């Protein structure tokens, strides 16, 4: 693997008097898929939300391409954060808009405000880029369908296309397949792996299905009560590793 696109050191977070993250360290290289595993309350989603800036960490350093975000301000910080995109379990799309409109929204940060007030004003080059992104996720033929008419798996692929249109180098996926049927889940995970490997994206995904991590992630990280228990190639994960993570009463609700 190349040098990490995303590097996290000493990530800590508490809510009230409860410590959720206890010094998490990890990295994700270009072309790599890393899965986070652990029971409910282990700190998986909080980790990604802190990295994305949705939740403010109490301590730790988050770096993109070896540049620490806490060393940046203003426009520089905004541009660095634009290199990351997040995909959620609850698919945040506008159902009444077309797939193309939703993907164009990934480019909002780099077009004039007046051109973003309505999808009809998106520049032609942005619309073409969005079409290309839909093609990369296998949905070019559904570009002008309303998102609300697409299946859950197709909607999640639209969300991936939107991240591509954002031109993100790092994709954070928080339980991206938990709400999908098994076949759609396989398709989305296969797509994330293919994009990482073929286009050099760094993908970090929270998964509740260890079998998907073992098949589609290059590495898997185990979290237990806010601490890392392993960081290993997925091919080296054993039943004992998983038993440690998912044993009853090992975690607290987050």
Q: What is this entry, summarized?
A:
This protein has helices spanning 44-52, 74-81, 99-104, 124-136, 152-165, 182-199, 210-216, 239-246; strands spanning 4-15, 18-29, 32-37, 59-64, 67-68, 84-88, 170-174, 202-206, 219-224, 227-233. With 254 residues, the chain is α/β, with parallel strands linked by helices.
Order of helices and strands: EEEHEEHEHHHEHEHEEH
Strands ordered across the widest β-sheet: 6-7-8-3-9-10
Overall geometry comes to: globular
Percent range for helical residues? Answer: 25-40%
Mean pLDDT: 90
What separation lies between the terminal Cα atoms?
Answer: 33 Å
Low-confidence stretches: none
Highest-level CATH class of the domain at 1-83 and 213-254: Alpha Beta
- What is the CATH homology-level superfamily of the domain at 1-83 and 213-254? P-loop containing nucleotide triphosphate hydrolases
Give the biggest sheet. 6 strands, mixed
Oligomer: single chain
User: What is the architecture of the domain at 1-83 and 213-254 at the second tier of CATH?
Assistant: 3-Layer(aba) Sandwich
Counting DSSP H or I runs of 4 or more residues, the number of helices is 8
* Whole-angstrom Rg: 18 Å
The strand count comes to 10
Percent of sequence in beta strands: 25-35%
What is the fold-level CATH name, i.e. the topology of the domain at 1-83 and 213-254? Rossmann fold
- Secondary-structure-derived class: alpha/beta
């Amino acid at each position: 693997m190349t040098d990490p696109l995303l590097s996290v050191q000493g990530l800590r977070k508490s809510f009230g008097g409860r410590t959720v993250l206890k010094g998490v360290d990890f990295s994700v290289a270009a072309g790599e898929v890393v899965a986070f595993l652990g029971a409910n309350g282990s700190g998986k989603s909080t980790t990604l939300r802190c990295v994305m800036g949705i939740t403010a960490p109490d301590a730790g350093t988050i770096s993109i391409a070896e540049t620490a975000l806490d060393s940046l301000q203003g426009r520089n910080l905004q541009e660095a954060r634009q290199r990351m995109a997040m995909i959620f379990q609850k698919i945040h799309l506008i159902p009444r808009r077309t797939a193309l409109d939703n993907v164009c929204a990934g480019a909002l940060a780099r077009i004039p405000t007046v051109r973003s007030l309505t999808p009809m004003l998106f520049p032609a080059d942005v619309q073409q880029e969005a079409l290309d992104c839909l093609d990369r996720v296998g949905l070019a033929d559904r570009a002008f369908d309303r998102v609300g008419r697409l299946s859950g798996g197709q909607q999640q692929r639209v969300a991936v296309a939107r991240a591509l249109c954002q031109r993100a180098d790092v994709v954070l996926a928080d339980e991206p397949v938990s709400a999908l049927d098994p076949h759609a889940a396989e398709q989305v995970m296969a797509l994330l792996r293919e994009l990482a490997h073929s286009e050099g994206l760094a993908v970090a995904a929270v998964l509740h299905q260890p079998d998907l991590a073992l098949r589609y992630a290059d590495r898997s990280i185990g979290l237990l009560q806010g601490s890392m228990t392993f960081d290993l190639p997925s091919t080296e994960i054993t039943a004992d590793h998983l038993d440690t993570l998912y044993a009853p009463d090992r975690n607290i609700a987050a």
